[in-house]
């Protein structure tokens, strides 16, 4: 029984860190405008995720279970970043995509938080945090998993 509880706790921790970058630090150098301006423009959740590089809880966010057709745009700029055609069920509790609409809209930077090195996805035009990309996506669709935060996106139904 104790081993089962320990295994569940370890699985939950690994899953929770799968897209997490909640270090609360603002990397002002990469932002296109001061954090104070973003605070005026973004919702509290979007600010925490996009400016402070936070994350939302798995399975308790707006789009992880969204199956409608449409596009996902940046909560900050309205630029189209992902489509429902490229979304897939990753089992992580966050919306996951095999690719962005246009690689020129995002930038991959190194994230060394939590004592590990991961590939962070930021919006190129703003420097704002969107999520992370991993190499464990569907092999038949390129092998990438763009694990995004719902709070960094807005869904526009077709």
Can you walk me through this structure?
This protein has 158 residues and is an alpha+beta fold. The chain has a single domain (2-157), classed as Peptide methionine sulfoxide reductase (Metal Binding Protein, Guanine Nucleotide Exchange Factor, Chain A, Beta Complex), CATH 2.170.150.20. It has 3 helices and 9 strands. The strands form 2 sheets. Strands 3-4-8-7-6-5 form a 6-stranded antiparallel β-sheet, with no helix packed on it. Strands 2-1-9 form a 3-stranded antiparallel β-sheet, with no helix packed on it. Strand 3 (87-88) and strand 4 (96-97) form a beta hairpin. It is globular. The N and C termini lie far apart (48 Å).
Task: Present the secondary structure layout.
Layout: H1 2-17, H2 35-41, H3 44-50, E1 70-74, E2 80-83, E3 87-88, E4 96-97, E5 106-111, E6 118-123, E7 129-134, E8 145-148, E9 153-157
Antiparallel strand pairs: 1-2, 1-9, 3-4, 4-8, 5-6, 6-7, 7-8
